[in-house]
Amino acid sequence: MATVFEMIINGDIPSTRLYEDDSCVVILDINPVSKGHALVISRECYPTFTDVPMETLSHMMEIARKVDGKQRSVLGAEGTNIMINNSPASGQEVPHLHIHVIPRFSGDGKTPEFRKEKYADGEMPKYGELLKL
Ligand code: AMP
Among 11, 49, 74, 109, fewest CB within 10 Å belongs to which? Predict the structure, then answer.
């Protein structure tokens, strides 16, 4: 079944488009964290960050940076959250790669609450070893 973003890209459902090219489409998120919240969506449906070719991902990041610039210059955003939810366990709802670009303002209270954990004694170096690239 087509994802909602495929339907948007094919023009089967409406969207507010900010930009498009051969690799990606940028739209406004219908349920914005803050007004102007944009989604940079791969034109081809790669389910996750892990699946997309690096060249496409790099291009999408370049476009996300342009969106960030526009949100700063036009909306007066003082910062942005550039975010990819990667696989359902992370909260990804639409299995079609997209980069969120969320305008942020000092004191806007929108910072997501990630509950943090603590390493037990000696545990951090073990994770360090396990995750070395
Ligand atoms: P994620 O949880 O990272 O998969 O985010 C999916 C995002 O898509 C959510 O922020 C939704 O608000 C947004 N979304 C879902 N349907 C639409 C739509 N028809 N037009 C614009 N944004 C949408």
Answer: 109
Q: By residue range, what is the domain housing residue 69?
A: 4-131
Catalytic status, residue 100: no
Within 6 A (CB) of ligand 1 lie 4, 13, 15, 27, 29-31, 85, 91-94
Tally of domains in the chain? 1
Q: What is the mean pLDDT of residues 28-56?
A: 97
Q: Sheet containing 17-20: give its strands across.
A: 17-20, 24-28, 38-42, 98-104, 79-83
The string of pLDDT tens digits covering residues 116-125 is 999 999 999 9
- Give residue-wise pLDDT tens across range 22-39: 999 999 999 999 999 999
Going by C-alpha positions, the residue among 64, 58, 72 that lies closest to residue 100 is 64
Residue 120's domain is classified under what CATH number? 3.30.428.10
pLDDT for 46:
97
